[in-house]
Please model this.
Amino acid sequence: MSSPTIDPSKRSWVNVPEGSDFPIQNLPFGIFSPFGRHPRVGVAIGESVLDIAAVNDLGLFQERYSSKELETSTLNELMGRGKEGMRALRYGIAGLLDESDERLKPHADEVLYRQDEVQMHMPVQVGDYTDFYSSKDHATNVGKMFRDPENALLPNWKHIPVGYHGRSSSIVISGTPLHRPMGQTKPKDEEPPVYGPSRLLDFELEMAFITFDGKPLGERISTAEAEDYIFGMVLFNDWSARDIQKWEYVPLGPFLGKNFGSSISPWVVSLDALSPFRVKGEEQDPKVLPYLEYEGARHIDIELEVGIAPPNGSEHVVGRTNYRFMYWTMEQQLAHHTVNGCNIRCGDMMASGTISGPEESSFGSMLELSWRGSRPIQMPDGSERKFIQDHDTVIMRGKAEKDGVRIGFGEVRTELLPAIP
Model:
């Protein structure tokens, strides 16, 4: 399937400030509610939200949409139209917002809301959530810390996109605070485990893609087909309790150290909007098995940053990285996920794993940035951080820029609250 894009020279009659994440070339989908009204489908344009149900009521789309699809608390029903259906709607919206089109402009007051005057909600009902481990620099750093500095990567790492199934019920929207988790930790090898709040609470800077309905159980999706089954992407903070995870993860992997919460940005940016930013990634060596081979440039150049804002303090950016540093692509991740016949469903979310680059400043977790706490990060207020403290707010942002067009994701912002005893 081809990925047509919106001409970079196009402009909207809606005001789009310089440097906005949401020009007419983006048009991400989300779920919002004007204060005092029920949730509904919206599209971001500049500093505004376009009410798609209100536009539909005006009869300006080529196809009519039901209230079940548009006046609803998730995008899942609308996403049931599949790739072509969502693409047609997005390009219809782009036509109505184009500065040369006068059909919708007289109704601006009926269909547009300011983003700072609405509440954003989870964009999809997430049925299943999978977290991958697909950044070579991150996996190498972790291997150096906890295993063998000379042979940091496990033997399978360059042969399969390693992943695990997480907990979808605790994925929350930006702005939702999370409590420091309680659990078992083992302070010293010779001592018994203890119960209490995690002391090594960390963020993981990730991105996630959201799927349409896949093939029936027993069938697989190839790397060539994968994009047909992917709706778009969000920023993803996969919170991690390092001390709880260290004690529990052998032999079955992450559990309580991960499932207490993950945070996402509210706007789903389509793959069509991101297609101009496709780039080639690192050559995969050794050569992958045939079902994981792919053609063309399948990585995406998305600049990412993460900051920490202490209580009553200003934000300090602690790391900057890029999604193009990923070793495994989302097409390979989806192909591997389904190669055994596993079926995916509309709204499933698949996260990248921590995204780290080759430089110390491009690491995607406090575990790496502070190197297990041995190199504390100095904050502007004079304090320091080895891991995240109570009432710190972690903020992640992402954007792709090229030829004067910026496709942004907004941000995912989460305050960490004290543990509940």
